[in-house]
Design goal:
It is a single chain. By secondary structure, the chain is of the alpha+beta class. It has 4 helices and 2 strands; from the N terminus they run H-E-H-E-H-H. A two-stranded parallel ribbon has the order 1-2. Strand 1, helix 2 and strand 2 form a beta-alpha-beta unit. It is globular, with a radius of gyration of 14 Å.
Length: 93
């Protein structure tokens, strides 16, 4: 858990440095992926736009969920998405 937090902090600092000092918005999503998850992500993206955030880091802690909701999040997002999966952490869950 601590190792993951360190990696996320480093990623955020790197993203901030690469993107010229803009803000990074961190969003935690815990639990299954369902329609409310889509609302959380949409709200975060609106907030990021208002704050001129250059990066939105979505930290997922999920066993999975509804494929249609996950597809909706990806298809209705107007920003480029990058995903990182911590396989070591996933195996230990």
């Amino acid at each position: 858990m601590r190792r993951q937090a360190v990696r996320l902090c480093l990623f955020g600092l790197l993203a901030r440095a690469v993107c010229g000092g803009g803000s990074v918005l961190l969003v935690d999503v815990d639990g299954i992926i369902h329609p409310i998850t889509s609302e959380i992500v949409s709200h975060a993206l609106v907030q990021a736009s208002r704050n001129n955030s250059v990066v939105v880091l979505i930290r997922l802690n999920t066993p999975g969920g509804l494929p249609n909701t996950a597809r909706h999040i990806v298809e209705h997002t107007a920003v480029r998405l990058k995903f990182y999966a911590n396989q070591e952490l996933a195996r230990n869950q």
